[in-house]
Amino acid sequence: MTHHSGDVPVGPVGPYEPPYYVAVFATVRTQEQSGYGETNARMEELVRDVPGYLGMDHAQTPGGLGITVGYFRDVEALTRWRTNAEHRAAQQRGRAEWYRSYTLHVAKVERSSGFTRGREPTTG
Q1: pLDDT digits (tens, 9 = 90+) for 58-107
Q2: How confident is the model at residue 4 (pLDDT cuts 50, 70, 90)?
């Protein structure tokens, strides 16, 4: 989970000019979480270096469902992330230890818009 300093307001990733891509990763974790926090922080650091990576939103429900949405400019960016060696190793460890279940949905965004109180709505 990303920790923001006090001067950065928490908010969703803003709209981009379509088309772009989203990867929606929904998870339920196991009781065994040793090493998860460090690995997750490393993945967040690593994905920022992927050309075409646009940002990430994350939410956790009290019931234990975690949802992470990664935004990518094009299929090439998604492929670079999917095939990254460290990411692949983390995926294997996730299946072995950290996740009870997960789903991954990859979609092409055709329309996006946004709203922030006190500003004009934006449309992509």
Answers
A1: 999 999 999 999 999 999 999 999 999 999 999 999 999 999 999 999 99
A2: very low
DSSP code, position 50: S
Consecutive H or E run containing 102: strand 99-109
Contacts of 42 (CB under 8 A, 6+ apart): 86, 90
The residue extents of the domains of the chain are: 20-113
CATH for 20-113 (3.30.1360.10, 3.30.70.100, 3.20.20.70, 3.30.70.2190): 3.30.70.100
Cα separation, 3 vs 116, in Å, equals 21
Nearest one of 8, 82, 10, 90 to 52, comparing CA atoms: 82
C-alpha distance from residue 17 to each of 9, 22, 54, 58, 72 (Å): 23, 13, 11, 21, 11
